[in-house]
Amino acid sequence: MEVFLFPLVNVTLFPRTTKPLNIFEPRYLSMIKEAVETQTPIAVGFIEDPSKVTPVRPGETVPFVREVAGYGYAQIIEERLNGTLLVFIQGQGKLRLGKVLDRGTPYMVCEGQIIPEKTVLEPSLRLELNSLHKILTRWIQTHIPDPAQRDIFMRNLTHPEEIVGSFASYLVRDYDLQQMVLEYDDINEKVHFLHRLMESNELTT
Questions:
Q1: What EC designation does it have (predicted)?
Q2: With a threshold of 0.85, does the pTM exceed it?
């Protein structure tokens, strides 16, 4: 499949989660509008070090972006008077980024190969998932003051993928560890890994 690539520093998009983004750079404003019009998926590429960003020609891979990226579809929430956009990207899954394609755009268009994941939770890990859910619930109640927004957030935490993605996004302080969670292909490995982080106090407050 073809995807528009949005490289961002220390940002990971998890499946079944929503990433709000403020878009202001002209090439990415163009990318978002084109993606919405054509229903082209956007891959959010994780950049660890912005100083390593280098020009990429068609036919090359992108050396400064992690190979595994979350992808989803953009929804324009607000178009402001100054031309900037508030956008939600709804995470659909993850893919392996391939070569940059020559499409004559000011932003990068890449090949992407969808990575299948195991999403069935083993019964032996149900207690660990419940522990993550309880901590995430406490975080939501503490950090989201609006009752309506809290309710929407909580109602969307119905599947293990949603709990894991939200937990990693909001409660794991280390961005590399967030990306590591994304790169696991088995929901059971993700739950066990996050539970170990919780026990080792590697979380935000």
A1: 3.4.21.53
A2: yes
